C-alpha cells in the first residue's frame, strides 16, 4: 500500500515535503500560501481559528471549507 499523505490521506505521498510526508497537491497549497502570504477565513463566516497543522479544511473542529480573506 502506498504511503498516505499526512494532510489529505491521499495514497500518493512518496516523498517528504517540508519535513513531513504529504502529496504534491498539499505541498503546493502550503508553498503558495506561504510564498504569497495568503490568509484564509471560514467560508461559513464563523469566527473560527484556522488550523493548518491538521488539515486546511478544518476550522474549530468542524469542516466548512476556507476562502481567501
The number of helical elements comes to 1
Percent of residues in helices: 10-25%
Low-confidence stretches: 54-63
Q: Order of strands in the sheet with the most strands? A: 1-2
Strand content: 15-25%
Could you tell me how far the N terminus lies from the C terminus, measured between alpha carbons in angstroms?
Answer: 38 Å
Indicate the radius of gyration in whole angstroms: 13 Å
Order of helices and strands: EEHEEEE
Number of strands: 6
Would you tell me the structural class of the helices and strands?
alpha+beta
Largest sheet: 2 strands, antiparallel
Average per-residue pLDDT, rounded, comes to: 73
Overall tally of structural domains:
2
Shape verdict? extended
Keywords: DNA-binding, Metal-binding, Nucleus, Receptor, Transcription, Transcription regulation, Zinc, Zinc-finger
Family: Belongs to the nuclear hormone receptor family.
Pfam families: zf-C4
InterPro entries: Znf_hrmn_rcpt, Znf_NHR/GATA
How would you characterize the overall build of this protein?
With 69 residues, the chain is an alpha+beta fold. The protein has 2 domains: 1-37, no CATH class; 39-69, no CATH class. It is built from 1 helix and 6 strands, in the order ββαββββ. It has a two-stranded antiparallel sheet. The chain has a two-stranded antiparallel sheet with strand order 3-6. A hairpin with a 2-residue loop joins strand 1 and strand 2. The model is unreliable at 54-63 (pLDDT under 50). Belongs to the nuclear hormone receptor family. This is Nuclear receptor domain-containing protein. Residues 2-69 form the Nuclear receptor domain.
Amino acid at each position: 500500500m502506498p504511503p498516505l499523505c499526512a494532510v489529505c490521506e491521499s495514497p500518493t505521498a512518496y516523498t517528504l515535503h517540508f519535513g513531513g510526508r504529504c502529496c504534491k497537491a498539499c505541498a503546493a497549497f502550503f508553498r503558495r500560501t506561504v510564498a504569497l502570504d495568503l490568509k484564509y477565513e471560514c467560508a461559513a463566516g464563523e469566527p473560527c481559528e484556522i488550523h493548518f497543522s491538521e488539515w486546511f479544511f478544518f476550522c474549530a473542529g468542524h469542516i466548512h471549507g476556507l476562502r481567501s480573506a
